[in-house]
Structure formats: structure tokens, C-alpha cells
Amino acid sequence: MIERPTLHVVSLSGGKDSTATALVAIELHGRENCRFVFADTGNEHEATYEYALEYLPRALKITVDVVRASFVDEFATKRANLARIAAGEPESEVYGRRKFMYRWTPALASQALEILHPTGIPYLDLCMVRGGFPSRKRQFCTEYLKTRPLTEFAIARIDEGHAVWSWQGVRIDESESRRIRLQGTGTCVKSFEHIGDALFVYRPILRWHVEDVFAAHHLAGLKPNPLYLQGMSRVGCMPCINCSKAELAEIARRFPEHIARIAEWERIVSSVCRQNSPVSFFHLGTQGHSGKASTVSDVVEWSKTTRGGRQYDLLADATPATACASAYGLCE
Ligand code: SF4
């Protein structure tokens, strides 16, 4: 059997945990045996792009590859279906009889076709082709925007002849839900796993505490992502669908342009999705009256209230607000 050289592939998010993971990889295996890769969702803060793609390469003397999910094929399928409706075919002929019909008319389908083109912004394109935004219960963003492109990157390296260790900066104590999930008897508790073929997963900081993570930065002379000094408990999508009420209020106060961008995305996604049923970035949808979406602007207003917000139960529906469903540490 031919021995494959091992390549250590570190997924960088611009956050503290993946940076600490990169430091361990470099120390143990040297830059020449490591690759660093950043999955660009198109929904990151500019400080995160600067940190992951400029500061870290400079400070660590590394190159960072960028992967971006593409949904060009899905756009083509969705456009072909809408074109049939625009030409007069009934929706039931195009999609088959379903419990929920979206009530497309030829005029509405024509309007949607004008807007339904890939933008090259992975997050927005994903939502346009999926017909809505991800939610805590259907967190497809991590799968499509991070897990798949990063796995494809690793598989391409295996096809080049390497054995790949995929280094993931996940920590058990990052959140209560993750602690519970990772301390069970499932596979997630392992810091090292053989996934299959020549692909392995390594989680070197699984049992580190947050103090260890910042200490590793300090010892290496690295600055953490500056967003940590601006009220953000994690970095990643700006905003993340998992962000807390307080975090959202802080984002709106400091970075209103990102809220405006999400509001524009809501308008775009609504215009190519379910007719007469606007979609919202945060799946609150529980304002006491039906038929009105909880737009990001509504939710921001609620986030500024000091108490209650009985009309919204967003941040109570699933995991704690600091958690991400990914056990792979892809979203901080
Ligand atoms: S950071 Fe949040 S919004 Fe972005 S991909 Fe991860 S879970 Fe989804």
C-alpha cells in the first residue's frame, strides 16, 4: 500500500477557537504541512474578512484559501420551473400536487424571474433557491455554506494524494448545549476520528477553556478578532440566526449597515419565494397577529426593549443563544 503524506487542513472562521487551533497545528506540524481554509458565507463582518484573510496570513505567515458555495444549478432548476408557470402552465403541473401551493400566477412568476439570478453572495443565493432563511430548527446554512464546501476542499486534497486531517476548533465548554451534546457517548466526544478513506477529524482544543484560547493568542503575540472588543461574544455571520437579543441590539447600534443589508435580503428573498407570505431573517413569526412577518427591523426594535417581548419567543425555541448546532465548530 502506498503511504500518503498527511496534510493538516485547518478550517478558519476568523474566530478565537479556530485561530487557537491554527496555532496548535503550526506548532505541531509546521506551516509547510498545513493548509488553512475559510468558508465565505457572504454574511460576515468586514472586520472578520480583514482578520481571517489579511491579518492572520500576515501574522502567521500562512496562506488562507477561500471556499464559497455556489448554487448556480439550483437557480437554473428554479428558473426553469418558474418559466413554465410564467408561460401559463399551472403550478400543480410544474411542481405536482402538494399540500401547500405557493399560488404562483404567470405574472408573479415573471416578476420573480426578473430578480431570480445568482448574486455570488452564498448566503443570499442559498436563501433565494431554498425559498426562505434558515432557522434554529432548520439550520441548513451551516451545512450548505460551510460543511459541504470545506468537505469538498478536503476531498480535493485527498484526490491529490494526501491523507487529510481536518482540524476543527470546537470546545466542549463553549455553550451548555454543546457541552451536553459533546459529553454524551456519541462520536462527537472524540477528539480524533477516522471519517473514512483518507479523511480524519482532529479537535485539538475540545477540552480547552476560553481562557486557554485567549492565552494561546497572547503567547503567540496575536490579536483576537477586534469584534470581541465591540460587544460580540462570537464572530461569524453578522448577524447569525443564533444571536442573542442583547447581541442583536449591539449589532444594530454599532453596525446598522448590516441590519440594512439583511432588510434588503428579506425584500429580495420574499420577492422570489412564497407569494403573499414575506419571509424573515429571524423565524419569529409569532407576533400576536398572523399574516405579518417579523422583519429584521421589527426584531431589532424588540431587541432594544429591556423586558419581555411577549410577542416574540425566538430565542427560547431551541438551543441557548450562544450555541450553534454544528458539532464541528464551523460556526462560532
Ligand atoms: S454563523 Fe450562524 S447564520 Fe452563519 S452559517 Fe453559522 S449558524 Fe448559520
TrEMBL record:
InterPro entries tied to this protein: PAPS_reduct_dom (IPR002500), Rossmann-like_a/b/a_fold (IPR014729), Sulfate_adenylyltrnsfr_sub2 (IPR050128)
GO molecular function annotation: catalytic activity
Classification via Gene3D superfamilies: HUPs (3.40.50.620)
Pfam families in alphabetical order: PAPS_reduct (PF01507)
Coiled-coil portions: none
SUPFAM superfamilies assigned: Adenine nucleotide alpha hydrolases-like (SSF52402)
Protein name, entry field: Phosphoadenosine phosphosulfate reductase family protein
Species name: Paraburkholderia dioscoreae
